[in-house]
Design a protein that fits this description.
The structure is a single chain. The protein is mainly α. It has a four-stranded antiparallel beta sheet. A two-stranded antiparallel sheet has the order 4-5. The chain is elongated and about 155 Å long. The termini are far apart.
């Protein structure tokens, strides 16, 4: 099949050689060509029409077959990134997308390993090229609106890769599989947060168990809204749960089940290490009290700063402004006293929250100190922890199942891969053009043939005359040299004898 890929290059090479011969003959005999046309010279085509037609059909067939076979055997691969963030030049996890990763050394090494190819990653890189439909467009970079981000990429594999015991299409298939796996593992959603761990519950204080389970439940709760906003009605196959219904179940677990558990523990005053727990609560309250005093001091400072403002200055501050409809109006803006008031409110709310925590710790410490719970109550509390643990594990499994189903659906659509199919009309047009160029060259050679033959015969006769002239010249030159040598010898003999006077 690789031989078919050489059909078009060989035809084009022969065509170039044919036109070189045609131009050479034309420039050799252009001075002898008739001024008013080639009517007489067209007779050179007599009897050659059938032969010319057969050659034209042969060239057309070879050209068309070569193009179709090459495009079927080594098609271009189209990779379309059709997720929402792709249009912004981002990966699904909002990191920056880089098209060079498609043909990076890391990916190509995996392709070579996956396909068991008999070439290195560097060699494979020399046979692969990537382009986008935007490469042919002239973008006006001076205007931001003219800048475009491509979401489609064409990847071409050279036919020469078959010299290493594989095919271009097989290489592109390996590349698509490897890059998809790498893309989904590194740039898709990270759902590892759904894997909850409960190993730290062993030996934990009863009231701390509530905080720990609540923290684990919030991991699930905070992960679901992102999917819910994209597809609130999505359901996994064989399940009636949606992201909204699972989120509501987690809310019920936090606000009802965990609150009931905490109320039971506080009522019974349960603790694994009473003295240690009470000492810890006292230390925690001391830290909370310090933070509460800091917040109240910051609140008082801002209230004092507000009182220092002149009342006339804080009545109103208006500035001229235009709205979205370009309508003029006077807008009130904030001044320093407004910012002080907002900060004072925040510090007061923070101090109030700290007071509530201090009161809660004081109450829990008192309940633990007064507790006289039996072993049955502790066993009941341990059983309740196991039930809460099991319920949260069940919620985690449901979230995992639903999210995995949704992620699989989205991942299947992250990248769409397809191969280009040969276009018969386009290949026919190209084949007709090649055939036309061949026929034009042959006709030109047929027209020039009589003049070229006459020119060549004339040149042959001229060369024969020149050859005879050169032969005669060499003969005469040889005789002339003989005469010169004889004269020199005679003159030498005469000079040796001398002349008597």
């Amino acid at each position: 099949m690789i031989l078919m890929s050489f059909v078009i290059p060989v035809l084009m090479l022969c065509l170039v050689f044919l036109y070189i011969i045609l131009l050479r003959q034309f420039f050799m005999i252009k001075s002898k060509l008739p001024v008013f046309g080639f009517k007489g010279a067209m007779g050179g085509l007599n009897g050659r029409h059938r032969k010319l037609a057969l050659w034209a059909v042969l060239i057309f067939t070879l050209s068309f077959a070569g193009q179709m076979a090459t495009q079927l055997w080594a098609p271009d691969m189209l990779m379309v990134f059709n997720y929402e963030e792709a249009a912004r030049g981002q990966n699904p996890n909002s990191t920056r997308f880089n098209e060079s990763n498609i043909l990076s050394d890391r990916i190509l090494e995996k392709v070579v390993k996956r396909g068991g190819l008999a070439l290195s990653a560097d060699q494979l890189a020399g046979y692969l090229t990537i382009s986008t439909p935007l490469d042919a467009e002239k973008l006006d970079t001076t205007q931001e609106s003219a800048l475009k981000i491509s979401t489609e990429y064409w990847v071409h594999c050279s036919e020469r890769v078959s010299l290493y015991g594989t095919t271009p299409k097989a290489v592109l298939n390996f590349l698509a599989d490897v890059y998809w796996e790498d893309f989904t593992n590194n740039y898709a959603e990270n759902d590892k947060v759904l894997d909850l761990s409960f190993g730290e519950l062993e030996g934990m204080e009863y009231l701390d168990v509530k905080d720990y389970l609540q923290m684990q439940a919030y991991k699930l709760k905070n992960y679901l809204p992102g999917y819910s906003s994209e597809s609130s009605s999505f359901r996994a196959e064989g399940s009636e749960e949606t992201f909204t219904s699972l989120s509501q179940k987690i809310d019920n677990f936090i606000e009802i089940e965990l609150e009931r558990y905490e109320a039971f523990i506080l009522e019974k005053g349960l603790s694994r290490h009473r003295n240690t727990y009470q000492s810890r609560m006292q230390y925690a309250n001391r830290l909370l009290d310090t933070d509460q005093k800091k917040d109240m001091a910051a609140h008082d400072v801002r209230i004092e700063a507000i009182d220092m403002y002149n009342a006339f200055m804080t009545r109103f501050v208006l500035i001229p402004t235009y709205d979205t409809d370009q309508e003029f109006y006077m807008s009130r803006t904030k001044v320093g006293v407004d910012y002080f008031a907002d900060e004072a409110k925040e510090f007061l709310e923070s101090a109030t929250t700290l007071v509530e925590k201090i009161e809660h710790n004081t109450y829990a410490s008192g309940q633990v100190g007064r507790s006289g719970a039996s072993d049955d109550v502790y066993a009941q509390a341990d059983q309740r922890i196991e039930e809460l643990n099991t319920e949260l594990m069940n919620l985690s499994a449901q979230c995992r199942e639903l999210c995995d189903a949704y992620v699989r659906m989205r991942r299947d659509g992250y990248i769409q891969v397809s191969f280009a199919t040969p276009s018969a009309p386009a290949n026919i047009i190209k084949s007709l053009m090649i055939t036309f160029l061949y026929v034009a060259a042959w006709i030109g050679l047929a027209i020039l043939q009589p003049y070229y033959a006459e020119c060549m015969s004339g040149q042959a006769a001229e060369r024969k005359v020149q050859k005879l002239a050169k032969k005669e010249y060499r003969k005469n030159k040889k005789e002339y040299r003989k005469r010169q040598k004889a004269e020199k010898r005679e003159a030498k003999q005469n000079s040796g004898k001398g002349i008597d006077i």
